[in-house]
Design goal:
Layout (H helix, E strand, L loop, with lengths): L3 E6 L4 H18 L6 H9 L19 E8 L5 E9 L5 E8 L6 H18 L3 E7 L4 H9 L3 E12 L18 E2 L6 H11 L11 H8 L9 E6 L2 E11 L6 E9 L8 H15 L4 E7 L3 H9 L3 E13 L3
Parallel strand pairs: 4-5, 10-11
Antiparallel strand pairs: 1-2, 2-3, 3-4, 5-12, 6-11, 6-12, 7-8, 8-9, 9-10
Length: 326
Amino acid sequence: MRDLELMAEGTLDGSRMVAVTGLLDRLRALRGEFPLSEHKRMELSQGSRSASDPPPPGPTAPADRFVGISATARSTGDLVGYAHLSIGPRPGEFALESVVDPEADGSDEVANALLAASVDRVRSLGGGSLRLWVPRATEADDRRAVTHGFGVERNLLQMCCPLPLSPPAAPATSSPALTVRPFRPGSDEPAWLTTNNRAFTSHPEQGHWDLPTLLEREREPWFDPEGFLVLDVDGRVAGSCWTKVHAEADPPMGEIYVISVDPDFHGRGWGRALTRSGLDWLAGQGLTVGMLYVDADNVAAVSLYRSMGFVEDHVDRAYVLTVDPA
């Protein structure tokens, strides 16, 4: 598509936002799922600072920091692709996702142009580590990433299971019965953040959450504190299983959204027990499919979930590139 026009903007004006939202809605209807990850959808809906402004000093909420790169066909004025470049809370960290209209002529060319423009944008912002996320990655995605200098970093498995779970074949001493309660908004945030961040110290997405990040999730329409199950031990939040209902999926699915156990309580089988508690709660809402995401190289977790009846549905892949400054 030789008449392609690319535009990078830190703030999408009304008409551009309408066009981007329209493209995302069409892809969602076609695929049966959202084409951008939750984090980037939240950034897009909440707006951004100007991309020309220098990053403010100190930690900044990622939801306020992104650049949107639009690909438009000059001949028709139609938006044929969009790349969402998140500027991370730490200097030199960038994350990218992109979408292309499958009906556009030269869709592969559009995808390559968006990727090249995103790398150039990172270079102009001082360079750093650029992480490209591709849902349901294919060999074609692998070839494109390699062509632009990226290497595979992570494989994130989406695993699914039927609900309700079958009862355990025999009582499991490693999976005790637990008494959990619903999350209390306005009260539990500090204690939950402490436990979550201790459990995910080295995790690139789930670790280092702060109060604004948690409160953003609580404002999402899907948030239900009744499905956010908390385990108390000796006055502490020892663990939790936070569920999320994907009502838009066909059929609707229930996700184990975040599950964590404080390291002080590891080795007691609480991860399995909390997972089962979450799945049982989802089944109680009438859902027939459970789902979660797990890193493929987390062998222990993958083995645990398989033993509970989960099977792999697809792979989302992260590629990484170190970009030199301009």
